[in-house]
# Entry
Amino acid sequence: MRDMHQIRLRVNGREHELTVEARRTLADMLRHDLGYTGTHLGCEHGICGACTVLLDGSPVRACLMFGVQADGTEVSTVEGLAAGEELSDLQQAFSDHHALQCGFCTPGFLMLAEAYLAERDSADGPTEAEVRELVASNLCRCTGYQGIVEAVLATARSRRRAGAP
Ligand code: FES
Ligand code: FES
# Structure
């Protein structure tokens, strides 16, 4: 017998109510039940970070959580970053600094960096060493990471200039 649960959550500000099997991962629920296919699945066991989404503002590996654990939460996925056709500042920086090639890892890096930049005190900005440590939690097989580091630093700098958190 399937163990089904009814849950409610918000994804990128949009309310969802659905019935989900207890063993369904958050990543599969987002992708297959709710259509947020920007959340990618690589390793499916917590190593690569391609599935990173924000749960109540904190980055989580969506392959390591069950969908039912997101009941009552606010989830942010890569689909929520752009405003229509207009890329977010971080997405634009990834493009400007050649921080992606195949792009498979990119949603995870974007969500990881978004959470970090939102949390980090903007007054003195992150150092390159801090950003390198941050991005070490996710795997990219294409870029060599340099462009990703530059994109995150450039976004931090421009947000600092704009006085945004
Ligand atoms: S797919 Fe989740 S960490 Fe790799
Ligand atoms: S851009 Fe291809 S895995 Fe990162």
Q: What stands out?
A: The pocket of FE2/S2 (inorganic) cluster (ligand 2) is lined by residues 100-105, 140-143 (CB under 6 Å). The chain has five helices and five strands. The helical segments are 26-33, 89-96, 106-119, 128-135, 146-162. The longest strand covers residues 4-11.
